[in-house]
Amino acid sequence: MSTVHKGKIDIVEVGPRDGFQSVKCAPITTEQKLALIDRLADAGVTHIEYTSFVSPKAIPQLADAADVTKAVLEKYPELDLFALVPNLRGAQNAYNLGLRKVCYVVSFSKSHNKANINRTHEQSLEAYKEIRAAFPDLDVTVDLATAFGCPFEGKYRDYDAVVAFLKDYAGAGMTTCCLCDTIGIADPAQVKELIARVKAAFPKVELGVHFHDTRGCGMVNSMAAVESGVTHIQAALGGLGGCPFAPGASGNLSTEDTVWMFNEMGYDTGVDFAKLVEAAKFQAREISGNYSGHQINIENPC
Ligand code: COA
Ligand code: ZN
Does residue 254 fall inside a structural domain? Predict the structure, then answer.
């Protein structure tokens, strides 16, 4: 049967940031992180959120952000590499190292924004404006955490409120936005509805999605996003991940499961599935000590 080509999907690997931040078994060395990024690049993954510039007290596993940045920017100038920042200081640190793309995290939930970055909505918006003003050539994606629901406030159905929230960011120059299901509470109908509303309100803003798999809906939610015209799909190798400040959240959608599904369906991810599984096995063996994706148990990935 010939493969039907359905278009390109940008698989965005967030494991080195979202995955590693919550690995508790042992400190992950810079060398281990770089070895994993090598394997991801070798598998054809070109979009990688590789660290975050946050307080090392909040996220000790990513305290080596500067070293990782220097190494990856030198080795992989052609890749789409970016890091999470929570404030002007993080953006400044990233910029000074030569990074020109970050995602700025703000949570739609007031209580999660406070728990995660200790800021009010007003303070977060102010900091976003400061970053835009200080670094006009920095590509800043707005990562809207808890866009679908919050560990403290529950699930959201008020799509108008999300759109109203984003209006201030659009007014301040937002060009890209990632809708993040921080706690894995979204369902496909909600995904379609929120994307439709956000697209209608901000037609020029490029959208991405980021799903956690707490309720096993990561794949169907990604599919719903693709059917809604969003082709920037975030996932984490081995299904690692989870915000340490969102109680009960589980790992991300696993990259290898995601790639397998889209490749099988005839989408062009550009990712070599067998090599990706090898990267996942390496990670499980050398770094995380566990594995929550499915493909690793398949000896013959063909
Ligand atoms: N990078 C490194 N260190 C930073 C920093 C940054 N971007 N921003 C602040 N700090 C340091 C300060 O220097 C200070 O250090 P000190 O205690 O040694 O003096 C400490 O962090 C606290 O700074 P303050 O400005 O008072 O921040 P805070 O205590 O209100 O915390 C954040 C705010 C954003 C720094 C912190 O909550 C954080 O890093 N959160 C990360 C959340 C995260 O990554 N979540 C998962 C991803 S969604
Ligand atoms: Zn996440």
Answer: yes
**96 membership: H or E segment, kind and range:** helix 88-96
- Distance from C-alpha of 161 to C-alpha of 46, rounded to nearest angstrom: 34
Domain count, the chain: 1
At residue 297, the pLDDT reads 60
Q: Is the dihedral of CA 250, 234, 94, 117 positive or negative?
A: negative
- Nearest C-alpha to atom 37 of ligand 1 is from which residue? 117
Enclosing domain of residue 64 = 10-296
Ligand 1 touching residue 259 (CB < 6 A):
no
Which runs of E-coded beta strand occur in the chain? Answer: 10-13, 47-52, 80-85, 101-107, 139-145, 149-150, 154-155, 176-181, 206-211, 232-235
**In a domain? residue 191:** yes
Residue numbers annotated as active site: 243
Residue 219 within a domain: yes
Q: Does residue 146 line the site of ligand 1, with CB under 6 A? A: no
The pLDDT of residue 302: 46
pLDDT number for residue 185:
97
Question: Is 36 in contact with 20 (CB distance < 8 Å)?
Answer: no
Grouped pLDDT means (10 residues each) for the chain, 302 residues: 75 97 89 98 98 97 98 98 98 98 98 97 98 98 97 93 98 98 97 98 98 95 98 96 84 94 97 95 86 61 47
- Residue closest via CA to ligand 1's atom 10 equals 55
The answer to whether the CB of 236 falls within 8 A of the CB of 254 is: yes
